[in-house]
Amino acid sequence: MLTLHAQGRKAVVWTAGMDLPSLPVWIDLYDPTDDERRWATEATGLRVPERSDVTSLALSSRIRTDDDDTMYLSIPYFADTNNGHRPGPIGLVVTGRVLLTLRFADSRAFELAANSCHEHHWETSADVFATLVEAIVNLAAQRMEDVSTELKQLSDHVFSPSRLGTPELRTCMLEVGRLEGMQARNRSSMLGVQRVVSFTRARKPAWMSDQVEVRLRVVDHDLRTLDEFDDQLTNKLQFVLDATLGFISTDQNHVMKVLTVTSVATIPPMILVGIWGMNFKDMPELNWPMGYPMALAAIVVSMVIPVLFFKWRGWWSGD
Question: For residue 319, which of 4, 143, 156, 212 sits 20 to 30 Å off, Cα-Cα?
Fold first, then answer.
């Protein structure tokens, strides 16, 4: 799909044979066909990047400029939602006349930027570029705040006064993994955006006004702040994970303690049973009328005494 954004007009979806009186300020290519690529190339005189170009790991392929100050920028890993959609690359070609974007997945940031362009009537491609980057960063901040909120709720649950069982703690570990996955997608996306913004500010082409440069400077500062926030969230996730593993280890130690106390409490009756189970000819207990009940009582008493002793010493306190 090819969407055209012209100054002071609503967005128009291009169809074959459509004529335009002037070049739009923003051309958005969403998983374009060959015809849409061909039209964008003929209308702008720019080379539309291929998917292999925007996914390339080579820095020269991701960020470069031509002699006429045309900037070719790309973000190989981009995800602006936390709903499980697979991340996809985006490419940007920026000139003083037009902004050409290439993407292969739905994006809330592009929708917000399009609405903002219609509301504020941006006149230059640099203004649209700054608006798009601001929308991407604002959504990233919102996603990180969502992760922070869910992480706080998870932390309160893990450190609740009530004792959590191992299955529930395992569920908490899975939740930590889910939040870490969300944050990892945010981190990877923002890394590409930060490189694009830093390169654009350092290059500062002639078509970029001072107002746009100031906006990009604010975005660059926001990205650095989000990077620090990301470190805090990562440390908090690791802390909650370590705490969950510690509680699971405590439960395992409790089980081992119960088994140990139980085994110690059964040692005296085992000794008595072993003695009375000997096959000697002369055993006085064999002739006692109450020998069997007395033996059972002695076995029970030999088990109760160690248990009472452990409880008196406080070895079962809180368990």
Answer: 156
